[in-house]
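Before the break, one more example. Copy the sequence into your notebook; we will annotate it together after we see the structure.
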Amino acid sequence: MIVAKLIDTTLCIGCKACEVACQEWNDQEYTMGTFDGSYQTKPELEANFWNLIKFNEVEKDGATSWLMSKYQCMHCADAGCLAACPAPGAIVPLANGTIDFVHENCIGCGYCITGCPFDVPRLNSTSKKAYKCTLCSDRTAVGLEPACIKTCPTNCLTFGERDELLRMAETRTVELKADGFADAGIYNPQGVGGTNVLYVLKHASEPEQYGLPKDPVIPWTVSLWKGPIKWMGMLMFWGTIFGAFFHFVIYGPQDPEKHGHPRDAEEEPSEKP
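Here is what the structure looks like once it is written out:
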């Protein structure tokens, strides 16, 4: 069964209870920052801060409003971080659709950051390991819902079977349109094969207002270096190995005496002044 998280942004009140629950459950030490004039806890995600409520101030039709959005790993079906990672076993797609990081296998290269079109993974400067939301894989493995969803007071967050959540999102979209929000819709970008974190948005045609990319795709550089460049490099490597082997078989080892380098030649004594 593929699981997912549904975020109804129309019900989010920006209380940040989900941020606290994430910090507590994952035993993450909070680091103080500097105030930058925003109501957000942090400007961006950090290696020890995986869940962020974004306060998006938008002016539309002469009125200013807040568009809240919960920012964390999207657990893409076609995950850019997984496509970019060169370390076997460092990023693991679980059977329930969750993308998990195995830090013991992480080499700290940061390629997962480059491969993610949502700019989610963060590299810890001390441990040199990459971190992100795991959708509380340790909780879901034993039948519990993620900590952020457990603590949400407005039912903005829902966890369950992905297909069922999509039906819930479609029903909610119909309700919003009936209430006058003609642009209401679901954020489930197909450029990454769909995501296991789904959003209900009032302004679905403008996800950028919520801090979400409009048409996220895996960077072409990842496909290039993991595809043609990788195989060309492998071909050149093995070509060099086989070339050296056949050269040895055909011509044998080099004879130093034939090339003016006698093995046992004694050095002539240098002239003394």
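The chain has a mean pLDDT of 88. The first strand starts at residue 3 and ends at 8. Try to locate both features in your own notes.
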